[in-house]
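Need tokens for this chain, all 490 residues.
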Amino acid sequence: MSQFTKTLILTLLGSSIALPAQAGEWNQFRGPGSKGIAIGSQDLPESFGKEENLIWRAATGPGHSSPCIWGNRIFLTSSEGDAAKLSCFDLEKGHLLWERQVQCKAERRLHRVNSAATPTPTADGERVYAYFGGFGMICFDFAGEEQWQRPIQDDKNIFGTATSPILADGALIFCRDTNGDSFLESIDPLNGETRWRVDRSGFPSGWSTPVLWEHKGAKELLVYGAFRLSSYDLLDGRERWSVPGLADEPAITPVTGEGMVFVTSYNMNTSPEVVGLPQYEELLSDYDQNGDQLLTREEVQANKSILSRMDADGEGDHPLRGFFRFLDENRDDHLDAKEWQKMSKWLGAFEHANALLAIRPGDGDRRDAEILWQFPRGVPECPSPLYHDGLVYIIKNGGMISCLDAKTGEAFYQERIGARGPRYSSPIYGDGKIYAASARGVVSVVSAGKELEILAQNDLGERIMATPAIVKGRIYIRTDGNLYAFGLDG
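Here are the structure tokens for all 490 residues:
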């Protein structure tokens, strides 16, 4: 029996035990198909808060994972110290049904806004699968009984892990790009064993979650890695097509529509919404204490940033002390004007796109993929695009939202919606409305369509990093300390 036949049989067997997501499920990051769209007709609230349209509130531990919902259960992960937890709540009342804990090793590097509990769990109606940075993957049934676990060797990822596992036609799909052992893997959900594994050693650290879609009869996995979007055949992992020239640090998840793939590629060098590098004379004026026209390690300690994301509350800023060794070529513990020029040259080497891009996929044989259009303004770094009804929406730091025609890239509007600050949560759609959360804790609700109408600004007063979920007329929002259920029946 050939390896292809074995893979096909295993895939079909897996499909018979894993139930497809229905209108009442939001069983992975950004829901069914990773689209961020609630299935079916639902009546959802515009305004909500701690005393308005609140169904229930449940305390949670720290973490950035999004709610994973199947049937009457809602799953969420958290992490504190070396302990990571998978919690199962009752969907209707918010009661904690069970909680399971694993011990995680500290990741070699972890960005201060990241967490070992950033990946979102996925579920298939019988089992729930969770991945934790510093531990690996673990599977429980819906009663909380462990089914299997797969420790995954910790590899150097410059900001820590963030990618989530997904279920795709009875296969558990997991991609991990690091500065070490990068791979894409299809896993048997029954026992955690590998079906196929693709080496991605050419891809350094990345944080995007794979997406399953069907294109011209082929089921493909879209994987956004550093500098390249790739498509792999779901059955055997064979690469079908790819598009180069994209972001060096991909965090967003691709979305599909109109037979196209939409991604954002963020370039801090060319983005018009970035506070650029200062001149060397400015640095001397601010930090050269002894007036010798040089900068020492001690002098630059006071510098907060030489490169900043606009309206991001200082998150992700780059202080000069972090580049000191890189710039100090003669190792004399001083920086001069010539050495400072290395910073501009390094940043100028980032030639990848800064844009929202629409990609027409290849066919895996005769036709290569191609970029149909690009939109270079208001490009988000973390929030994924949203496609619905022929329109593509993006939102970035500072609450700047853009709405474009999916086929042509024509912009219908680009405006600020009034909720400032950094953004990590991705926008979602339901009941004719778009819900977009800022890290400062404000959930903006705008009307979907070619004209911007702000319906409500809902300030929960708690930090929001996770993407909300929508199921059965309720919106579930995870903050830094609580999980909320809001609905018109509250």
